[in-house]
Amino acid sequence: MFGVNTNMDAPKQTGGGRTCSVRSCEINSRRNPGYSFFSFPKDETRVREWIENCDRRDLLHKDLTTIWRSHYVCDLNFG
Ligand SMILES: [Zn+2]
Q: Which Pfam families did the record assign (predicted)?
């Protein structure tokens, strides 16, 4: 019953688990508990830079509070 979830269109944020916002990255805190997740910066200009780096222009339509509260980037995308 609990096989691999192949539905890639499922909501990314479920049950408090954190999912990386980078489009090409599939790290999430439940499957990949070893990764750290970083909240978006509090500076709006830098938020836009992160969104560009994430290739997630869809996030430009969300308000900043939502982005700060429910979007993260994992440490795989840093360094
Ligand atoms: Zn990531």
A: THAP
pLDDT tops 60 at residue 6: no
Q: How many A from CA of 28 to the centre of ligand 1?
A: 8
**Residue 13 included in any domain:** no
Domain that holds residue 24: 18-79
Q: How far is the CA of 21 from the centre of ligand 1 (A)?
A: 7
Do 54 and 22 form a contact (C-beta atoms < 8 A)?
A: yes
**What pTM did the predictor assign?**
0.77
Total domains present in the chain: 1
Q: Which residue has the tokens 């840093």?
A: 78
